[in-house]
Write a structure and sequence with these properties.
It is a single chain. This protein has 424 residues and is α+β, with helices and mostly antiparallel strands. The protein folds into 3 domains: 132 residues, no CATH class; 91 residues, Helix Hairpins (Orthogonal Bundle), CATH 1.10.287; 144 residues, 2-Layer Sandwich (Heat Shock Protein 90). The chain contains 10 helices and 11 strands. A 5-stranded mixed β-sheet has the order 6-8-9-11-10. Strands 1-4-3-2 form a 4-stranded antiparallel β-sheet. The protein has a two-stranded antiparallel sheet with strand order 5-7. The relative contact order is 0.07.
């Protein structure tokens, strides 16, 4: 299972959310403590004004208390009036700051449920009640949680916006790596990322143009060679010597196959021919044999839903079977099956395989391994053509040495579109 945090979005989100949580907790435990001390100072001044106005007998003392939202409550009535029983000192940070700011012997009780503060000022016999002077824990926690949620949502949205251009670039690079035509990536995001996207688009364009020029050159050369090869075959039929005639015909046939491989390799899209069932095609072309030791054995379980363009399917199988019979040992096993929502086509021989350090080179075009790949009518394009055809049809290609000996090619096609992808 992939780790969701091992992505650009996951790490950005984790970093930003972690930073927000740290800042939020810091504000709660550090800044709020300082704010509590300031609030305690304000409450102390309000209480002192109310007490001094009462002792001085000021005519407007009651009016002053109303302005300050201070109510005088007899000590015997404080619990009945709402002071939390047993109405003794509470021990929160704000409570301690306020009690230290008042004269010695003062009592401070915080009614967190109703947001009230109860104070006995020094040795006074009465208590003072300040309504709506403290923020209730419920309101404080709900407000803090709401701010935290909004901050996290904004952080996630910001991280998502930052990683979007990088995600598009990664998807385009993946498409280009597997041989599909990469779309032009829209340049967005920070300046450095925009410059990277612009350079990537230019690189893809240059490589595609170079590949197209090479394909045009190969197609042109192959097309121009067809006429001379045909004339060679006609003239070879007129030779009186049988051995010489067969040699010329064999050589011209080899040249014709090489030309066909050039044309196949130069193609840039999947073939537009009608789709055919892979299982039915294999049975029809490789399954009807009465030999006791057949060259090809079939193990077909994909069903009729596995379909590919007929021309591409025929070229894939013919190239792989020809390679297997030329460089490996029979029998050649062809198997199809469905796995995890995908169709799989596997072709395997029973030869010596390819040295592990030469596997990557064997898949490159125009590369023939000195020991494992040589012969007439082969220019090192067989596996490269198969890989291109597979990718043009939306599939993935994997070549490896099989367990127990032999060389195996596995091709996986998405089942969602019938095993094909047109025009890539």
């Amino acid at each position: 299972m992939k780790n969701p945090l091992n992505t650009l979005f996951g790490r950005l989100a984790l970093m930003m959310v972690g930073l927000i949580v740290i800042v939020h907790l810091t504000s709660m435990f550090v800044v709020d403590n300082e704010r509590g001390a300031v609030d305690a100072s304000h409450v102390r001044r309000n209480v002192e004004v109310a007490v001094k106005a009462e002792h001085a007998g000021v005519l407007d003392a009651e009016h002053i208390r109303k302005i300050l939202d201070v109510t005088i409550v007899p000590a015997s009535q404080r619990i009945a009036e709402g002071c939390p029983a047993p109405c003794i000192n509470t021990t929160g940070p704000f409570d301690r700051d306020l009690r230290n700011a008042l004269p010695p012997g003062s009592n401070v009780v915080i009614d967190g449920e109703h947001g009230r503060i109860w104070i006995r000022y020094g040795a006074e016999s009465t208590w003072l009640r300040l309504d709506s002077a403290a923020l209730t824990p419920r309101r404080f926690l709900s407000a803090s949680a709401l701010m935290l949620v909004f901050a996290v949502m904004i952080a996630l949205f910001g991280a998502w916006q930052i990683q979007r251009p990088m995600h598009r670039l990664a998807m385009a690079a993946r498409e280009f790596r597997v041989g599909h035509r990469a779309p032009v990536v829209r340049a967005s995001g920070p300046r450095e990322l925009k410059e990277l996207i612009v350079d990537f688009n230019q690189m893809v364009h240059d490589l595609a143009q170079a590949d197209q020029e090479r394909a045009v050159m190969l197609a042109g050369v192959a097309h121009d060679l067809r006429a001379p090869i045909t004339r060679m075959q006609v003239r070879a039929d007129l030779l009186p010597d049988e051995a010489t005639r067969r040699g010329f015909l064999r050589d011209s046939e080899s040249l014709s196959r090489i030309v066909t491989q050039f044309l196949d390799f130069a193609r840039e899209t999947a073939d537009a021919s009608p789709h055919a069932s892979v299982d039915a095609h294999c049975k029809r072309n490789y399954g009807d044999t009465l030999d006791e030791d057949p060259l090809v054995e079939l193990d077909l379980h994909a069903g009729d839903g596995f379909r590919l363009p007929l021309v591409d399917l025929d070229r894939i199988l013919s190239n792989l079977i020809e390679n297997a019979l030329t460089y490996g040992d029979p029998t050649v096993d062809i198997s199809t099956f469905k796995r995890e929502g995908n169709f799989v086509l596997v072709v395997r021989d029973h030869g010596a395989g390819i040295p592990p350090d030469q596997l990557d080179r064997a898949l490159q075009p125009f590369v023939r391994l000195d020991q494992a790949r040589s012969g007439d009518a082969h220019c090192g394009l067989g596996l490269a053509i198969v890989r291109r055809l597979v990718r043009y049809n939306g599939g993935s290609f994997k070549a490896e040495n099989a367990e127990g000996g032999g060389f195996k090619v596995s091709m996986t096609f998405p089942a969602s579109n019938g095993g094909t992808r047109n025009g890539n």
